[in-house]
Amino acid sequence: MRLRAFGNYAYRIADPKAFHINVSGTRDSYTTADLDGQLRGLVLQNISNAIAASGLPFLDLAANQSMFAEALARQLQPEFAKLGLQLDGFTVQSVSLPEELQKILDQKIGMGMVGNDMGKFMQYQTAQAIPKLAETAGAGGGIAGDAMGLGAGVALGQVLAQNLQAGLQGGAAAATTPAAAPVGVKPEEVMATLEKLAELQSKGILTQQEFDAKKAELLKKLV
């Protein structure tokens, strides 16, 4: 698993002879900038060993950064000594996952929150997507925004259909109530809907067959 860590370390030359042999060599000058690249490499090589030595799962590293820093410092001290250096201090300020892995982890946590129930997870995902959909629509997302809206609409429709079905099943034993009178459809509402569907069809989001079927369904409501 890839992860990111940020922190600081302090060191000094403890064995000038070892430093000269293993680091500076025959160069007239050797700066800390020259040394930093080599030391960062040592830190990266020892991170996985330090995590294993700390005995902490990844999700607990952020809450136990000092413990992780101590484990990493213990791993690094002999490596620094080989270069003639003494590691005086080491701190870890943050540990995190790359963005794409963090999204996967968030999804797994979301599944755990709803007890691995796929239906509830779809509700969770839809609830997370609605604010972003509103922002996209408000910003005029174009074809990509329309496609996102269509996809979120389908997901939301599935969730509402499942809830409606559950409600009908739960109320099957209850007394029936008189059916409400059908609500009339205004011609201007039908025309506005047809214009929106035509726009989606022109952008390739709806096929001609899907558009014709929806158009026929809407026109029947005017009869």
From TrEMBL:
Q: What's the superkingdom here?
A: Bacteria
Query: Domain SHOCT: where?
Result: 193-219
Q: Which InterPro entries match?
A: Band_7/SPFH_dom_sf, SHOCT, SPFH_YdjI
Q: Where is the SPFH domain?
A: 2-112
Q: Which PANTHER family match?
A: FLOTILLIN BAND_7_5 DOMAIN PROTEIN, ZINC-RIBBON DOMAIN-CONTAINING PROTEIN
Protein name from the UniProt record: Putative oligomerization/nucleic acid binding protein
Q: Which organism is it from?
A: Extensimonas vulgaris
